[in-house]
Amino acid sequence: MYVHLNKKITVPNCSKVRTIAWSSDHDFIACGGEDGILKVIKLEQHLSGNSLANTAINNVGKKSTSTKESNGSKNYSHNQNLESHKSTVQSVCWNEPFQKLTSSDESGSIIVWMLYKGNWYEEMVNNRNKSLVTGMAWTHDGQKICIVYDDGAIITGSVDGNRIWGKEMKNANLCQVEWSPDSKTILIGTNELEIQVFDSMGNFVKKIALSTMQTYYNRSNGSKEMPNLVCIKWFKNNRSIEYPLLLAFDDGSIQLMRNDSDDFPKIINAEIRISSVDWNYSGTMFAVVGNSKLSEETGNGKNFLKLYDSNGDLLQIVKVPGNEIYDCSWDRTGLRLALTVDSYIFFANVKQNYEWGSMINSIVFAFPTNVMAGDYNVVGRRLIFWERKTNSQYTIEVNGFCQLTTWTHCCGVVSRITEQISSNFGSESINGKSRPNDLHSLVLYNSIGTLIDRHLVNLKVKHCSLNSNRMVVASNDSFYVWQFKQQSIAANIHASTVKSVYNELQMNKNSDDLLATQSSIFVSRTDPICCIATSEKFLILAHKMGTINQYLLPNSIRVHQFQLDGGSVPSCLALNRNSSKLAVIDRSNKLHIYDFDANNEQTKKEGDWLGIQMQDIWDMRWASDHNDMLALCEKNRLIVVNGVKLEREDAVPSDGYISSFDKLLIEIIHLDVLIIDSIETNPKTQLESYIELIESQTIRELKEIMQQSLTDAFNFALQCPNMACLWTIISEESLRRVQLDTANLAMIKQKNYAGIQLIKKLKKLNDDELKRGEIAAYLHQYDEAEKVYIDTNRPELAVNMRKVIGDYQHVLELLDKFHISNYEKESELVRFQLAQQYVDHCQWSKAVEYFEKVDANEQLVSCYIHMENYEGLIRLIDRISDKTLLLDIGIFLQSMGLCRDSVRAMVKANHVEKAIDFCVSMSEWKMAIDLAHEHHIEHIDSILSQYVQHLLNERKYIEIIEVYRKANKNGKSASMVMTLISELKKAQRGDAVLMKKLFTLIGLLHYESRSKETANSQQSKTALDDLLSSDDVIGSNNSNKKMIEDPWKGAEAYHFLLLTQRHLYDGYYDLAMKTALHLQDYEEFISSEDIYSLIAMASYNRKCFSVCSKAFIKLEASSLESYFSHDSNWNNVAFLVDSDETESSNSKEREISRDKQERYERMAVEIFATNPPNDKVSNREGVIMVDCKFCGLKIPDYSTSCEKCNTKFLPCIASGQSIMEPKNQWSCNLCGHQAIKTEIKQYNNCPLCHYKIFINT
């Protein structure tokens, strides 16, 4: 980064300027100072839009000797003095959304200004006349303003001038105010080193912790003066940063906080007496201005501007002339900064260190996107590859981006692997080193962003460099050399199909390449590496203490070491074309050049510093075709230096970055404008509108001579033997003048064989117009050449010329216009070439358009796969017959999960077995079985059995059930459900809801089998027969056999169990008792103890003690029965254990059963002592008696059967009651269970099987 002062404005009457504010949205600059001066200005040209780009557009294709005028030299487009304040203006601030300016002076007067017809006028005036205004701040949306006074008064008002609230803080000297980004809280600072937080309505919330500051400045320590709070700045724009809240104190301390509740802030010391701090618009850095005079006794100090990044790391220090610096403010772009010093306004230009690079065919640059959630250190960047020839842009999103570097044809990108992905991979898998945070990915792209190669390195990368076959990365103490693939990867590995980072980690886990990270070379732990440079021969490492090491590639052996003069810290390195000279820019922006071939008379060794030192250098580039020519950016000027003669050419005004230096032409790119336009407006203009070509002084002199005489120009070129590009200029000018002999000599000098052949061709032509056309084509003036060919009635020459340069779109236009011979064949060939050209640039949709016109099915398949256009591939299945293409389509569709279309393609390609394998892998068993039956393939059952056995070993019962169900084997599926139920009961993990679902599934499977058997009369086996087919499928125990006889009974058991509990919780004790009584029929599914406990509980709450008494009798008996049953089962396997152990276990079981029986007895005595049960049902219990519809006997309404005729009453699945009246009975169409019609009306689905209810009224 480089900062320099390039403009100074003097305020009238030499009044000192105390405050300044630069409007980010409207570009006005407001400044105020002594004697009530308030001035609003606007520079005529701003760097935030396309204005500079539009200027550059006029220079497209021109090789000029000058570039755009420096920004700071523009005149004002607005300059107005606002004359309403009578005393020193202390503060100015902008209301950006409403375009208002607010100013205040030391007398307490506040004025709100508005812009009307190009001038600023007073809109509102407020004069409290009690105290000094010490702070003003608008909310981010401009709706509210908060004003604080030094006597403790706080006033909050709206944008229309209405007062919202006000309050007085007693015994408090207020000094600063700031709103939170969401406008919900206000931060107010005092001179007592306190910052209090209020909500938007003035209610006190809390105090911000300043424990670190208060500890340092202990009040009991009288030797240290308490610092004053200078400003509170809370970054409010959309971008997320880790430390948006900034508190600055005049002693140089700055506290960075994540929010107003941050208990662990970051403290930095600027080492100056701070006067102002300001965030730039994007939040990437903040500026701190102040004076080195830390106390009144030290006298006058120096003014400094310091720039820090958003994490508080120092970026740049600049000395500012003058006696006292007061305030600073950024413009919207973050490229200029306004400073108020004494009675002047200085403008500082900031040249940022962009992540960008230049290649032969394109440029690449990165700009920040939003920070990834949860990790402020992992920054996402968007890389844009902008191709020069086609003006196409290719975008790549890179998470964890660190930096990039470029070579002539490729770009290397370094990104940090997130901790989450690193932990998934396992830190021990990287050479046994547990350093997941140091895992970085090295990715190589070509000039349009197509991935070429990638690699992982276990190194905390800080620097990177690239040559033709190696990428070098370095940390603070080590470096690593990665030799990447030489050949380019084909277009079918476009970035959209590249595997994820995690898959890359898994892929490299067993790769020998990753072991190469062990060869990282340790350099120094005490002297950190600060920059690196690479050529084909050497690697240069520069260290913070000024030591520079030279390593020989590819063995990475150190061959030379030398020291930078004056103890300077290197910041940028560059090797010349043959690696004989090294240019170094240190952190103070001084240039040094080291010659490896020179002899040092003092050390008697090879290598010495050249006697050239230049100041204010911030960019440089060696010539790619000359060993000693070096282009430099010095402030706003471009200078070319000869490294041998140590001569400087005349400086040329320039404000861009050097993209290339070749053939004595310096290509300058206005990267500031390009990146700003890319972020804000997404430009669609040509890349050349941001690029300038600046000629060196040698070319300018040669062109001046050529205007007089080509012979003199020829002699001039002979005096410059190492500048072959001069012959190119002479030959081109000779061709323009059609002086073929001179052009031929120049071609021979530059060894241009193609040019010599052109001269021979031109000499054979008799038509001067055709000569002119050939010359124009050679000089890349294609439009002019085409016009000549057409005027001479030779359109085929224009067509051939356009073919040679690859302008196939224009070739099609010419063919359609002139209809030359073989028109149809030529058009088809050109369309294919045009489509192939779009493929090379990854423009798949355009390629598809032309491939379809020529029926290039093979290329269409490739394009559709890259586009992931499934519909296009599916359409191709019916159109093509090539089995290889059909196989490729099938494989791709299968990878995307489109099984049916994938199978169709495979079957058409006669790969039926692969189609079946695809179905099996995707668990489409029914489709696999159908294919096997259709094509008479018998091995599908064995595949199914193997898959089921694999799932069974992993105890994945649910997956097995689904597999059997899809394979139309409902019997085996039901058997597996029963196995799952048994496993859950053993593990005691199945609750009643889950059990009901599983038993209901058995019933549904049974119903599905019966339905399929009815639909297909050819099937000889029913689902029930399938379940009973073999003991190895069903099992031979009684419970399974009973389940087969009535597949819905288990679902009924748990349904009525849940229904009973629901009635109990809802307080419907009568319904709970009636439902619980039906549970007596399901003792094989629910324990008798649970059943009679529910009956006893429900009947007790129902006050039906006769039923309750019978339930307790059953409970007392069941406790003993459960023991004997358990004891019997245990004795069956008693021979497996020691007899003493068996006897001990039996005695414990007896004690538990007896204890349970005694508790039931005690509970029964307590209940029935006061509530004696009656053998006959009494009205006292409130029991309703009803007539049995079959025998007429009076029975209680809770009866489940009739005592006289033994009629069993069906339970209602909706309420649990017994259905006494068959006429009021409703039956489910699926499960066949019954319910009372009046009860089922409130349901839309069957309560048991959830089938849709249809009730005929």
Q: How does this model look, in words?
A:
WD repeats lie at residues 82-113. Residues 1046-1119 form the IFT121-like TPR repeats domain. Keywords: Cell projection, Cilium, Cilium biogenesis/degradation, Cytoplasm, Cytoskeleton, Repeat, WD repeat. With 1257 residues, the protein is α+β, with helices and mostly antiparallel strands. The protein is built from 35 helices and 61 strands. The strands form 16 sheets. Strands 50, 51, 52, 53 and 54 form a five-stranded antiparallel β-sheet that branches. Strands 1-29-28-27 form a four-stranded antiparallel β-sheet, with no helix packed on it. The protein has a four-stranded antiparallel β-sheet with strand order 2-3-4-6, with no helix packed on it. Helix 9 (740-749) runs antiparallel to helix 10 (753-764). The radius of gyration is 44 Å and the shape is extended. The chain starts with a strand and ends in a 17-residue tail after the last helix. The model is unreliable at 46-74, 219-223, 370-378, 425-436, 488-518, 1017-1036 and 1123-1139 (pLDDT under 50).
Quick summary:
The protein is of the alpha+beta class.
Topology:
Layout: E1 2-10, E2 17-22, E3 29-33, E4 38-43, H1 51-57, E5 63-64, E6 76-81, E7 89-95, E8 100-105, E9 109-116, E10 119-127, E11 133-138, E12 144-149, E13 153-158, E14 163-168, E15 174-179, E16 185-190, E17 195-199, E18 204-207, H2 211-216, E19 229-234, E20 245-249, E21 253-257, E22 266-269, E23 273-279, E24 285-291, E25 303-309, E26 314-320, E27 325-330, E28 336-341, E29 344-351, E30 356-358, E31 362-371, E32 379-387, E33 393-398, E34 401-406, E35 410-416, H3 419-425, E36 439-446, E37 451-458, E38 463-466, E39 470-474, E40 478-483, H4 501-509, E41 521-522, E42 529-534, E43 538-543, E44 547-552, E45 557-563, E46 570-575, E47 581-586, E48 591-600, E49 605-609, E50 617-622, E51 629-634, E52 637-642, E53 647-648, E54 652-653, E55 657-662, E56 665-669, H5 671-680, E57 691-695, H6 697-708, H7 710-718, H8 725-736, H9 740-749, H10 753-764, H11 768-778, H12 782-791, H13 795-804, H14 808-818, H15 823-840, H16 844-853, H17 857-867, H18 870-879, H19 883-895, H20 899-908, H21 912-921, H22 925-934, H23 940-953, ...
Parallel strand pairs: 5-57
Antiparallel strand pairs: 1-29, 2-3, 3-4, 4-6, 7-8, 8-9, 9-10, 11-12, 12-13, 13-14, 15-16, 16-17, 17-18, 19-20, 20-21, 21-22, 23-24, 24-25, 25-26, 27-28, 28-29, 30-31, 31-32, 32-33, 34-35, 35-36, 36-37, 38-39, 39-40, 40-41, 42-43, 43-44, 44-45, 46-47, 47-48, 48-49, 50-51, 51-52, 52-53, 52-54, ...
Helix pairs in contact: 3-4, 6-7, 6-8, 7-8, 8-9, 9-10, 11-12, 12-13, 13-14, 14-15, 15-16, 16-17, 17-18, 17-19, 19-20, 20-21, 21-22, 23-24, 24-25, 25-26, 26-30, 30-31, 31-32, 32-33, 33-34
Organism: Blomia tropicalis
Region (Disordered): 62-81
Domain IFT121-like zinc finger: 1212-1253
